[in-house]
Fold this protein.
Amino acid sequence: MSDLADGPASLAWNAQQQLQLAGSWTARGLGRIDRQLDALAQPAGAPLVIDASEIEAVDTAGAWVIHKLLQRLGSEAAGVELRALRPEFDHLLSLVAEEIARQGEVRKPAAERPATPLAALGQRTVNALEQATALLAFIGESAIAVGGWLLHPTRIRWRPILYNIRSAGFDALPIVGVLSFLLGVVITYQGADQLRQYGANIFVADLVGLSILREFAPLITAIIVAGRSGSAYAAQIGTMAVTEEIDAMRTIGLAPLDVLVLPKFFALVLALPLLTVFADVLGVFGGMIMAQAQLDVGYGEFLDRFVRTVSLTTLLIGIGKAPVFAAIIVTVGCVQGLRTRGGADSVGRQTTRSVVQSIFLIIVADGLFSVVFSVLKL
Amino acid sequence: MSNEQALPDPVIEISALTTRFGSRVVHDGLDLLVRRGEIFALVGGSGSGKSTLLREMILLHQPASGSIKVLGVDLQDIGEAAALALRRRWGVMFQSGGLFGSLTIRENIGLPLHEHSALAAPLIDEIADWKLAMSGLEPAVGDQMPAELSGGMLKRAALARALALDPELLFLDEPTAGLDPESAGDVDRLIASLRQLFGLTFVIITHDLDLLWQITDRVAFLAGGKVQALGSMSELAASDDPAVRRFFDGRRGQAAENGAT
């Protein structure tokens, strides 16, 4: 039927001024014949005869094209006649005629006008506000759920909490370790030149200690975990929303917040500060190695200076940011997951959104922390 | 079909087919023949290898041994180009539809035409609308996303996509599963009318006894890795094979039989 053994569809004028159609008038055989058809000029006056005797194959697409040709020529010319079409193709053509008549009755809905820039801006604002409202509602519901857990500690689900500590915390140790070690190396390497110019080699301990402990370790850890675990939260919950698992949970009487969100929340609020300490250690270790290689500051000297200049407050400030970052990662990941509607497409979109938003919010929160700490002179 | 005496030519020929998953034997020397213009059904209990057999016929799974010929082409060691040419000649409707979630229904139906023909986009949209109408859906459905449709509409849209390239052969996996009786009846009538209009051959996997009684020409009953019984529904119903009897003798089977006669 759709075999091209008979050659592609073609048309030509024959000796009797008849339009001669030949070949396979099928989806594959048609090619771009519609251009030729559109350019077809109608000889004025006489009724047109179309000879279809050499058409070898017709499928629905071909029948559609032939019928539209007949319709157009019929409205332009004095008359049009299709001759010698094989009887087995005839019923296809009459099917098309029925369908076109039917489609004519059904008014096609008017195409939507493209939105004006102002309307698009308004729409985006409304969407952003909706998202913010959803986030606030989610935070409120979660707070109530946390209250429920605290009032009835027997309801706390320890097993998923421990599982999440392992998957989001313990399993992330290698990547967090490697990246913060490299960060320590890079900071020292970049700072080394400057410090050497002033002969201030020993201040490398201050540089590494303060920057890693206060800023870089909490930030890099949170960003890695947002990419690693935040995306997993959104994808997991999103897929469950698409496959109606979350609705099923509700009907069984399990609160999705209790089962899906709170264990992740408690697990990450606990695990992220611990990961940050690990990142602190490896970051400083990386700096220490680089300090000896580049600035001839020995390990003993480095640690001696480090203990004297880097206060406990510095360490605690860095670690103190981590639970806030953890809350951002879990909240954004779960909210985006729960907002998934539709299919696979939507899961992907929400996952991307969760990672982008949580990293954005982490950096904004870090900036706010800096402002607050400088006001408090910490 | 010019000669009334001769049987129509075979569309699918399967001989001595063996399939294994690990040590589990799914098909054990299975033979089957489907003729042009037939509505052919595969039935059998869960795990009897119906779906695997379908997957092997549409080049999604390679059997351990044996030969499968579809539309005269041997599927063993088939080349890429030949496989593509063959895939254009059949349509498949998957059990859960298999419609692409990121495209509208009209785009889903038009996709095979966009891929395999050089037709202009507006023309493809018109043809897609026609296929929608053939499957009994309103043109407005074309603008919707698959996630917005009900189960019955999804099956129809999937059927419309399977029809996009005017296939000679249609494989339907559970076309009526999960549908209400009225929609299931509509699907039955749709299949019968498509066969009448376009002379299509259908291979259907189904458990729906109403569908089996109403529209199928021949039914193959799969059990123990072989075709246990083959024939029209009334022949199968008269069979005294115990496995076949269990399948038809339930109360639901009786009701469907009475409905058909």
Observations:
- The longest strand of chain B covers residues 10-21.
